[in-house]
Each structure stands twice: as C-alpha cells, then as structure tokens.
C-alpha cells in the first residue's frame, strides 16, 4: 500500500487518507445524521429551511429510518437520466484491450456531508468527462462523523448515465483507529423476525428511488466470525433481490474470521464474498493495492467460472497521480493484455492533490492520467517507467447508438452561461446534471503540412452551456485539419441530416467513417450565419443512408494563412423533427433558505410526464423579459441566490426536447413571494476595546444586506458622529465610553448601544496589553478530547502556528483555559485550520467564548457565527475572569473536527481596570 508522511495524520478528514493500509479514512466526530431545521414563513406560507438541498449521508440506524417520502431533500437528489447503451469503438492503438474494464473509485464531491444536490456557484468541481474509458463509477465518500452510507449526488448520476456509465454509492466501515465501530457492521447485517435483511432492503430502496445503480461495500472494521458470515449472507440477499441493472461491488478487505486482512488477490480467503459455488455473491471485486502478481487471481476466477475482468486490480493515485509507482502497464500479462481489469482509486487527484482546485491544471492532469502526455490516444510512446495513460490499454466506448444525438460540448461548469451563442447569465457555476457527451477521442487531430491545430476545453466562449472546444494554432490557406470526435453505431435514413455550429473557421466539412468502408466519407454543407459570429453548417447524410456510421469528425479549412482560433459549439446528428413534449404543470415552491434579507434560495418542483423531454429551463420574468436562472434534468430544482427586486417574482418552467428546443406553450409559471422586508439587524465590533489616549481604533458593523446607512455616535470621540459600516476614531482623554450605532433601511432603523464598551487609558498608566495565553500561569487540562498527546489542549495556547489542538471525536468540541488567577480580558484571536496551512474549508464556522471566575458559573462574551476566515478577532467589553471556555458549535464548514492552531486571549495581567 501507499506510504504517506501525513501531517498530524489522525486529525485529517474529507478524503485525506486513501484506503490507508487498505483504507480511505474520512475523519470527523461521530453524529448520526442531521435534519435541516424548518419553519413556516408567516407571510408566505412557504417553509423556511436553514440550508439548500444536500446529498444524503447516513449511518445504519438513520438508514433504517430513511424514507423517500419523508426525505426533505429527496426530490433534489434524484437522477432522471436513464442509463444509455454504449458501444465499443475500434481499437485506436495496438495495445488496447476490448475486453478489460475500468472501475473508477472517485471522490466526486469535496465532502461527505454538505454537498449541494444540484451544483452551485463553485466552478472548481470534479466534472469528470473521460467517461469513454470508465465502465463503472464508484462515487466514493464516507466519514465516521458525517455518514458511512453515501449515495451519489444526483448530478453525478445524470452525467454518468448520459454517457452510458453506471454509478454506485458507498457503504464505508472505517477501521477502528479512524472511528469505525463494529456495531455499525452488526446493525447493517441484522435480520428481522422473518429472516430478511432490513438494511439491504433499504439500500435497494434508496438506489431505486434516487436512480443510481448499486453499492460498493467497503468493510474495514474488525468484527467477529458470526458477523463476517452474516455479511456474506447479506451480500447474497442483495444479489438475489436487486434489479438486473444494479450491481454490488466488494472490496478485498475482511475475511471469514471477521478480521480485516487485505489479500491483494482473489484467493481462498476472500472468494466467498465474490462467488459461492454456483451463487454469485458480488458482481465485482476490487483487489486491494497489495497485489504482487495477478495471474493467480485470474486463474482463481476461472475456477469459479467467473469472468476475470470482474476483478479490478487497485492502483492508488490519490497522492501522486501520474507519478504513482504502479502504472496501467503493471496489470499486463506477457501477451500485452491485462490479466484482470483496472481499478483506479481517487483519480480525482487531477483536481485535488494534483490540481489544487486549479481548473487549468485539472484539464492538463486529466489529459496525463486518462490519455497521455501527447494528448493523443493513438500514441504508444510512453515507456513502462512512465504513466502510460488509461487510453493506452482500454478501448474507447460511446453512447451514440441512435439519433437524434445532440451535444453542445458543455462540460457542466463555467464562468458564464450561454444560450444560442449569447451570454445569458454571468458568474461561475457548476451543474453536472446538464453535462453533454464529450468527444470520444481526446484528441485525434491530423494536420496538413503548415497546420498545427491543437484542442482544449474552453470557457472563453460557448454556444449553449458554459464551454466549447477550442482549436488553436497556425493554419495555412486551403490546408485542412481533421479532428475525429466520436465513436458511434448509428444507421441513418434518407432524410437524415447533421449539423455543426462553429466560430472562427471558414469551412467545416463532416467526416464520417462507415462499417465495412475503407475510406472516410467527407461531406460539405450549407452555412447559415447565427448571432455573435457563430455559423451553423448543415449536411445531408444521404450518402450514408442504410450504412452504419462508426466515427464522426470534422475537416476544417481557412482561406487565409495565419493564427487560428476555432470554437466548436454544437453538433447534432439527425434531422430535426416535430416532437411533442409533455406539459409542465403544478409549479410550486416547497421551501426557501434565507441567504440575507435581500436574497433567498428557492426550492421548487413541478409535475410532468417527461415525454420527449431532456431538461427543463427555469426563467424569471424581469421587466417583461424572461431571464435565465437555471436548467435541470430533474423535475425539482433549487434557484440559488435570488435577489429581491419587489415583494414577488414570477417564474416559468419550460421543457426542452431532444433537439434542444424549448416549447414555451408546454411550460407553466408560478408567483413566488419573498419574506417581508424587516428593519435591519446590526452587530458591532471594535478592533480593540482597550486603547490608549490618541490611539486610533476601528469600529465595524455587521448589518443586514438591505442596510442603506449606518450612523455612529460616540460622545467624547473624534469624530463624535460619523457614518459607514467601518469607521475610525480616537480619544483625547482617558475614560470609559459608550458606543451607539443605528442601521437604516427602507423599513426603518435599528439601534444598538454598548454601554461602557471602550476603555481608554492614559499612556502613563502602566497598563500592558499582552497575550495571556502564553503566560507561565496559564494552563489547559480540560476539554472534550484530543486525538493524541501531540494535539492536546496546551498546543492551542503555545503561541505557535506549527502546533494545534485537534479533536475529531466529539460532536461539539470544547476546551478551557485556566489563567491561574483573575485577570482583565479584552478580546480574543483564534487561528483556525487555514492559518496552520490546512484547508480553509476546515476553519471553525460557529463558536462561543465564555468566561468564569470559579469554573462553574459561565457568562458568554462571544457568539461568532458563519466564520470563514483563517484567523478571527473578537473584541469584548472588559471583563475580569480566571477561566475562559472555547465551545465549537460547528467545528468546520461542513464537518466536526476541531483544529485550533492558536488561541490568543488578549488582556492585562492584573485586575482593577474594569470600572476604573
């Protein structure tokens, strides 16, 4: 297995440890599922929900209580896209196998919990597109604190199904060292009085309700032999009851004794979890990374009368990606063909460790991992000492088996959204639900002498969606560059046509290869000018009538010599025909999340039979025009960050057919009511509440979004009256000062007064402000817990950012600092995960700070909510106390692990200042 020098390994979470020692550990504290809080809007009658819909993450006991009917987020997690049939392309290089398969175990979302059900505004997501090389996707996730039973988010299933790839969810039982509990395994395999496995029935119920294709069972918690035997029976039970399109995949981990003992092979120890005599137990087996030779596993599969390509030899690429010591060639036999199939763990390295969420690096890494450094799947130049790329040994597959076929080359994210070549919505987004089928071949380009076109995914321009294919490089007049795009298996009739929408090229001819024909057919077309420089070229497919088209491409030519930038915006195979889509009806608003008092995110759903419908576009009426807001393949959607321009807004849902055409006559609308605008909320903070005469401080106001002005009054200050959300002032005399601030909006004003808030001292008073945390008298021995002695409470008070307090075992971590005696406290500064070099997504989100003189009676002096900063400062009205308690109400942005690198308690090492 892999060797990693993890920094403070026991405090890592969210995909930090990849099947380490055969384990992927996604650590957090133990909770058993969190329901969103809901209340009914008094004015609107629409439920107010504290968050937008999220994908599901459960524990066994919460799975048992799960029901789609009572799942508030259920509708938004459904995939409505059917799994398309695929065909194999012709071998494009001599080394490709047409039989071996690829299993991708990818961490498709950043977190186990907190994943938006239908995308969002973050462009940097794992929008995988090299589906032509993947036969099954495992949507890997799981955390001892967030959930161990995790179905794929619906948007991932949509994109996979559109490309003909089944998707399975994860059941993850972590090792005990990382939060695993044997009772979780026991709960899963428990029978009812009738001898049924209720948890198995629930897993099958969930996969059917959500529309995905089965489960990957990753059991790495040590149990007894009885439980291990029950697990085998559990798998057989699922196998006997699952629909034919579902699959159960087993990870080579536990053996019949109940011990976790990764075999790195299919052998006598683990074969019972794969095949039991004539009875299939699991459909696939993922062989742990410890394998040394694969011939014996292949032989064992043959003995069991199973296809050896149902075995997947694991290669872990999470940390090192294309620099991993094992290569795709590692699974080959002496004949150059794979002994078994290939299983890639964490190929999302391309975005995460390898890409650091940089999208340009992501696409480059995708090329290296899945294709090769040449970016041409025909190439066999890479040696065995190099990463050869998956395309080297696995033939491409394509879902293009019928017409119409339409693609806008939309990868599912972007910087803006386009419709018919016009930008209709600005701002970064991700929406994998509407990702198109991308080219089968990345890239097969043949340039005539003088041409040097290369291809990339481009967000610079698009026809529909957020992206296009950009071809750029020098071109010589009248010289052609041919690009092979898709493998297919399509028969066309006499009247069929094809079309392509391009920008920046003078002539684009259609190039098709046909079964049984030696030479490709080149068809010239008729051009039609569209908006914003786009050109549509239409081709008659009459020359290919009754033939089977096996590949589809283009031949490009310019009339002038020079640098070229060409965008491919759309391709369609099949003549547009009249189709009748189902009507939309019953548009309703099922919930809202208040972002701020000017912004709400809106849950909506509608009724439809979905006939001949590919997706639904949602529009908002603005000044008599329809403004695009979103698109989904589902019949439920969440409109994010809708701005109030009045008390109501009218929304329309319009169906889109297989040709990309809207039928507005079949759409439906509904009027949404925003919550009434109330007087603004206001909170104030100071850069310091203990200052010297003449020193400048900053007062800041946290106010509602609707606030128009903030007026300040501090008698005795310079200035005494001022306006703004952030103001600076000073004091000419020592004393104790009161601060008043008033926030004003269209509904009125709200005043806040902090009596005796600022303490101004004379420079000769001898007052010394310091970090009380690092004084020799300060100790920390009490708290909720810590991961190990090197990450205990005192490390939060040592003044260093290379140490920390970490607690991954508590629901709401807390710790207490004992200052040794009563002292004067003026404020605090907390240094969270990002300040220590970890992900800012692990920064503490919500925390309270309380003080006490006796350690029993506490007064809360800070309530910080929705923090995202790496370091956070909180000034308070002076208080005398000996004990200070830090309570993490939400220890991460999504998870529950405390990571406090430093906690400064700012004050004076004396008493008698308060009220002085």
UniProtKB/TrEMBL annotation:
PROSITE patterns: FA58C_3. It holds the Pfam family PKD. The keyword Signal applies. GO terms for cellular component: cytosol. It comes from the Bacteria. GO terms for molecular function: mannosyl-glycoprotein endo-beta-N-acetylglucosaminidase activity. Keywords: Signal. Residues 760-908 form the F5/8 type C domain. Residues 1-28 form the signal peptide. This is F5/8 type C domain-containing protein.
